[in-house]
Amino acid sequence: MRGCHVMAKPASSRCNIDCRYCFYLEKPQQPLMDDATLEAFIRQHIDAQPGNTVEFAWQGGEPTLAGLPFYQHVVKLQQRYASGKTIHNSLQTNGILLNDSWCRFLQDNHWLVGISVDGPADLHDAHRVTRSGKPTHRRVTAAIEKLRAHRIEFNVLVVVSRKNSAEPARLYRYLKTLGTPFLQFIPLVEHDQNGAISKESVSEEGFGQFLNNVFALWVKEDIGKVYVQIFDSTLAVWSGYPSQMCTFSATCGHALALESNGDVYQCDHYVYPEYKLGNLHQTPIAVLNESEAAIRFGENKQRLLPMDCQACPVLKLCQGDCPKHRHQGAKSYLCKSYYAFFTYTAPYMQMMRDLLRQKRPSVELMALLRQP
Predict the structure, then answer these.
(1) Which residue in the list 268, 308, 321, 354 is annotated as catalytic?
(2) Strand partners, 57
(3) Cα–Cα distances in Å, from 180 out to 97, 112, 168?
(4) Residue pair 83/46 in contact by the 8 Å Cβ criterion
């Protein structure tokens, strides 16, 4: 049996803020997830995993809008259906609703929390605002302080836009003050109503320039202290392991999105009618995951890879990027960015790989770079 990841959206596309770049707010809203759908999801998701560990990911929209009692019920259902498996939960949130009651629950049940922060106040508040257009940065940092006070493990997810990509050093140094060493950078690539790349999106080359500037600081100062997802994933591939990011995996698929009414889609970026696999009330998740449509969707990443990519020297690292970033069969919008990043970081990745093969910590690279 092939396992799967499911991004569950119990509040559908509802959100309590109005990010100017959000692609999900436009989705039709479904009712909040009811008890029958929640119970079916938890039972089926546990049954669909062949291993002894099951990961639950709760996202949105804004998942905390489902309410704390909803997640207290989640834990009870997981305990009922665990069948001896170890259950882990993660919650991706804007943090606005997190209070002491939420934090006690998250700490008591060992949930991992992802907080969306786009940088210092001026960069964050340029796009992440309330429904009335007011800034949210202060409220998000207050939530982070609560997470730290309750000793809850959390990471920071940064949407890299045209605006904050222009200040990589300031952004990175700010993120290091937030109290977690775990950082994720997500490139903003969205289209406007006319089908053109939105004005908020990072530029074709800007994301690569941003990553390279952050990497230049990280490789000299923070190896072993700060864990940037794309850096760790790239080193894993250089070391002979699969990518930790679906973006750079050879195939797509089996990373499903669950809407609050039980509809299951191929991917969080493909919640459109033509990519609906079915509904868990009619067909179990394990069956949907093994369906011909799901397998074909995953294989299409390589089958529809543009010819220009076939001989590219960094293909093994980028695998053509996420199909969402390809337009009408062309190369990824971020092709220039990823080529620049993987090329620039290659010698450093090789050195860290070689250190690890010698059973020496990769952190030694910082000392080597300081040598005259």
Answers:
(1) 268
(2) 7, 90
(3) 20, 12, 18
(4) yes
